[in-house]
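1st attempt posting a full record on here, be nice pls
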Amino acid sequence: MKKKQVLTLSAIAIVLGSALVIVKQTQKNSGPAAITSRAAGDTLFASFPATEIANIEITGADGSVTLVKKDGKWTVAQRENYPANSVNVNEFIRTLAELKITRSLEAGPSFAPRFGMDEASTKPEDRGLTATFKDASGKELAKVSLGKNIEGSQDASPMGAMPVGRYIRNHADESGFYAVNEMFFSVSADVTRWLAEEFIAPDKIKSVSLSQKGSEAVAWKLVRDAENAEFRLEGLKLGEALSSENVAPIKSLFSFARFEDVVTTAAAGERADAAGKRNAIIETFDGFIYKLTITPLKPGTGPASSAPDNQLVTVSVSANLPTERVKPEGEKPEEAKAKDEKFAARLKALNEKLTKEQSLAGRTFELSKNTLDALLKERETLVKKAEPTPAQSPAPAPAPGTKALEAVTQPIEAPTAKGIKGAKKPAKREKR
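the predicted structure (as tokens):
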């Protein structure tokens, strides 16, 4: 081999060696090498068994919640299989099935605490959340841990650094941890966060009554004769008037109401103070009848998150719905058809509402003081002292030394010569 060729090959070897050193140094400075099972752009799972999942257990530092699928519907095991918020459950499953990786970090399971996934920690920020997915037979299908949030740039928002993602681990993949741009805001180990939120919603309230504490005797009853009319208090006494500011909120009682928690049968028996129990009945112009039993809590009972002035409420719902529309005499066929269709649609909606609200029977709900304030008013707060009617001012007295004019009550007819006896006829005027 010629000397020139040897020198050329040596130069090429030096260049390649230098390039290799530069690549290794660049990889070292840019962080862990992406030698993981999944890479940026890949989904977290090669295949997520979404359709097979029938049980999800989510554990955190403060507790755990178990979601169970029964007859095709998700329920919350810790609340005697009360219906779960199926939207949130299905969204969690769908998100994991489609979740894409933004960055991979090569590290073994022992590095979990660094990413906020320390299962031995009692601090939420260090513990993170672990979700275990099983099928109907109890076989584990998948297990993931949600760790620390990934903070964005300080300059990205006027409020400072904002989270832009989260660290996640697939326990079946021990090659590393992954960064994703999903925050999982709705995922929690708090049981109450997974409960279906629907509650009673009385519409077009016709009457409301409340019993006395610890008694069946009625404390007060409000009634109105039409949807747009004002309430009147039965048994309103002389000298009393309704306090409009205290009565007005009852028209929209339980509108958009939300309960704090669903209480198990055993817990309700331990926490309820039966001595203060009250009954309420709400009737609507649509024919719905709501019967509520409202019981205060015993002091010092319940979880720390429960306010001491919350109340336990049970509810039963019935309805007297019309089966057919009353048709006026002389109604035209085309008018009848349109009205019949509208009546049928309305009746269907009312029956669906009735079925949904009747499913709440047999459950005990914990409601906040604010939700019940409008209903739990004492009679004396609904009434006020009636304002006296202004008296008519008397006529002013005549000034001294003058006589009051007497009112003329009969019309005076002008006298005529013929009509007055002895009257003289007027003299004739002389002609000139």
